[in-house]
Structure formats: C-alpha cells, structure tokens
Design a protein that fits this description.
The chain is mostly helical and 43 residues long. The chain contains two helices and two strands, in the order αββα. Strands 1-2 form a two-stranded antiparallel sheet.
Length: 43
C-alpha cells in the first residue's frame, strides 16, 4: 500500500500515543525510532 501511495499515505494518520501527525512529524518519529534501535545493536 505504501509503495503505491508513497509518503502521502502517512499524512494526517493517527499515532496511538502522539495522535494525528503530519508527514514531517512522521519522518522525525521514524528517524528517531530507527536511530534508537540501530544504536541498541551497535550499527
């Protein structure tokens, strides 16, 4: 689904904890999430 609709798919979607997020907010959240987990494994 994401492959067909791209980044527009995430715009305005509701996060269970943070609520409705814009595309830039989703980008920040995903970036921080990936960074945190990659740091756990020393990557």
């Amino acid at each position: 689904m994401f492959a067909k609709q791209g980044i527009v798919l995430a715009d305005g979607k509701k996060h269970p904890f943070f609520g409705k997020l814009t595309t830039p907010e989703w980008n920040i959240l995903i970036d921080k999430y990936l960074y945190y987990h990659l740091q756990q494994f020393g990557i």
